Amino acid sequence: MANTILEVKDLVKYFKTKKGNVHAVDGVSFAIEEGKTLGIVGESGCGKSTTGRTLLRLIEPTSGSIFFQGKDITNVSKKELKELRKDMQIIFQDPFSSLDPRMTVSELIAEPIKLHKLIKSEQEIEKRVLELMETVGLAARLYNTYPHELDGGRRQRIGIARALALNPKFIVCDEPVSALDVSIQAQILNLLKDLQQKLGLTYIFITHNLSVVNYFADEIAVMYLGSLVEKAPVEEIFENPMHPYTKALLSAIPVPELGKKMEENVIKGEITSPINLPDECRFFKRCDQACEKCKGHIPQLRQIKPGHFVACDFV
Ligand SMILES: Nc1ncnc2c1ncn2[C@@H]1O[C@H](COP(=O)(O)OP(=O)(O)O)[C@@H](O)[C@H]1O
Ligand SMILES: [Mg+2]
């Protein structure tokens, strides 16, 4: 039996702004088994990054609870959080803005090791940095180079080495290939996949691009305006999407067999502002199946088939 490594229950994150409460994450629940990948998919602004950061406690949740390896980490102290950071890491979308430009490749990779006093002797640190560079496919000759001297793929490899430096069990990959050239994306995805197998890692893989998670995830959670609207094993999502939003997202994927890219924006209308949301289905304004019944309450995720959950009253 696989073990649940992470469980999130009714996670909420509102940002208070002058215009009102931004419902960035609005009651999200899911669990992930050890060694698996959960893909979180949705348009820009739907709350993917906030979900990832809040469950790592990089952002304080407004409410809800987070369990990691069976322990409630929702309110752990700063000191415990530092300890937890060894097990729970993040890889950012844009390695360039997350890397200090004044530090060399080796300094950047050594930083988390020194911060956590994992290894003390300089020689041992150097050895570990070279080992990590090899693990992520960075040539040893790049040891003293700076991030601006490298291409996007190598910079992302630094980001991955930093995330791996503390031997984590769980990593949130927040759009790790979205800022990269298409030609480099596959290399980084392959690297992440290899690392997962070698090191037994568990991933949350965040992306706005469904075709990326197709290759990567075991399960997919589709997010819209701070809520999950559908969750199912990856093949099931692709073969049997049920929520109108998931269907629309899937129809927006380029179809290689036809040798053409389908229209970018097949979903009518704009994503609703997440400020002070009314009690109605979050997809109401854009759904071509919407009717009066979709107002007045927010449909909850219901299990329609084993492992397949949908938040739509008409499924
Ligand atoms: N610090 C913040 N203050 C106010 N609003 C924020 C903040 N961070 C994110 N948001 C808002 O929360 C929503 C979700 O953002 P985000 O989680 O970054 O979405 P995604 O990663 O899916 O693109 C967006 O409307 C965004 O503008
Ligand atoms: Mg994001």
What does this structure look like?
This protein is an alpha/beta fold. The chain has one domain (4-87, 168-310): Rossmann fold. 31% of the residues lie in helices and 24% in strands. It contains ten helices and twelve strands. It has helices spanning 48-55, 78-85, 95-98, 105-115, 122-135, 152-164, 182-199, 210-216, 234-239, 244-251; strands at 4-17, 20-33, 37-41, 63-68, 71-72, 88-91, 170-174, 202-207, 219-224, 227-233, 302-305, 308-310. The strands form two sheets. An eight-stranded mixed β-sheet has the order 6-7-8-3-9-10-12-11, sandwiched between helices. Helix 4 (105-115) packs across helix 5 and helix 5 packs across helix 6. The longest helix is centred in the middle third of the chain and has 18 residues, at 182-199. 39% of the residues are buried. Mean pLDDT is 92; it is low at 257-265. The site of magnesium ion has 3 residues, from helix 1. Magnesium ion binds at residues 48-49, 175.
- The CATH first-level class comes to Alpha Beta
- So, the CATH homologous superfamily? P-loop containing nucleotide triphosphate hydrolases
Largest sheet: 8 strands, mixed
Tally of DSSP β-strands: 12
The DSSP helix count reads 10
| CATH overall fold name | Rossmann fold
Strand order of the largest sheet: 6-7-8-3-9-10-12-11
Write the CATH architecture name: 3-Layer(aba) Sandwich
Helix and strand element order = EEEHEEHEHHHHEHEHEEHHEE
Q: Which band does the percent of strand residues land in?
A: 15-25%
What structural class do the secondary elements suggest? alpha/beta
Question: What is the residue-mean pLDDT, rounded to a whole number?
Answer: 92
Show unreliable segments: 257-265
Q: Domains counted in the coordinates: how many?
A: 1
